[in-house]
Design goal:
There is one protein chain. This protein has 375 residues and is of the alpha/beta class. It folds into 2 domains: 187 residues, 3-Layer(aba) Sandwich (Rossmann fold); 144 residues, Rossmann fold. 40% of the residues lie in helices and 13% in strands. The protein has 13 helices and 12 strands. Helix 9 links the parallel strand 7 and strand 8. The longest helix is centred in the N-terminal third of the chain and has 25 residues. The radius of gyration is 20 Å and the shape is globular. The relative contact order is 0.14.
Length: 375
Amino acid sequence: MRIAILSMQRVNNFGSLLQAYSLKKILEENGQNTVTFLDIKRNEDDDRLMEERIDFAKEQEKRNISKKVPRLDRYFINRFLIKKANQRQNVVFEEFRKGFLGIKDVSTDEHFDYCVIGSDEVFNCAVRNPWGFTSQLFGNVSQADKVLSYAASCGSTHDDVLPDAVKSRIRKALARMELVSVRDKNTMSFVNNILQQDKAIQHFDPVVIGDFDQEINGTQIIEELPERYCIVYAYYNRINQKEEIQAIRNFCKQNGMTIVSVGAPQYWIKRHLVLSPFEMLKVFQKAEFVITDTFHGTIFSAKYSQRFAVIARMSNKEKLIDLLERLDITSHLVANVSALSMKEERFANDFSVIRKIEREELERSTRDLRKVLHG
């Protein structure tokens, strides 16, 4: 069977790449499936319907946070160095895309039996992005006989901010799907409200249910790591408030930890690690502590970190709180980083919880996918 995954695998971050890899692996291990990736295509006819779009200013502000970063002279050299490190990281990401995802430079025009849309924020159509609004991401895939989604997310998008013409086009595309699988409560409400029926089924992100043990064990970390370190995993320069920065510095100094950034640089952190996705997971395993404010950073921490804390932002609060509740790790949520403490047991990870969820949810997800793909 020929299956295409339509996702955000071209985006340069660990979450996008590992969710794509994990979904590909799950599909290949459950049947004689050949899995290929499709790229998102811009559709001008669709995007014109979004002229009345309401942008989420806060979301855009967070994603372009570098504009707010104070241009302090003391960080001039560091900004230059981490920019170079980020360029090296993007090269590593591209090598992973080609080596582990099998993605070519040119998008394929092949035809497929099935197209699986997701995971990631493929339904997040109310924020500006390079492809604009396209009904392709909601099921209008001409290259596949049948279409379904798996653990798709609409991010912070709500149906009541969309023009009626957009909702109508989304409704028509979603109605084509054999299975509408979402990863959070907000997306479930979004889909069901547009379809005006309860059709969406909630599943975990592929990274949650994915087994990466073999890949991690077969990976050697090239970067020289500090003896004891704390990972800061956040979007590019998103941790930029003086109070937050100082609180993290004090916490790490008191506990003898070196601060390192992983995934995206922070202008005030001198040590940014350039890693492959599997190296990154291994680095999470060896960390004394992890501080993150991202969805996938929380998953990496829950699966591999000894101690971690999660900060919820306004731009991702809905999906992050939903994830914390479903993983039963709400105790790791902090409203203020000044409350961090190595002595607090609530930051210690109980791996038995996530391992149980992995097993049970992998079985459930596999069963639901098989029903659609194999009848």
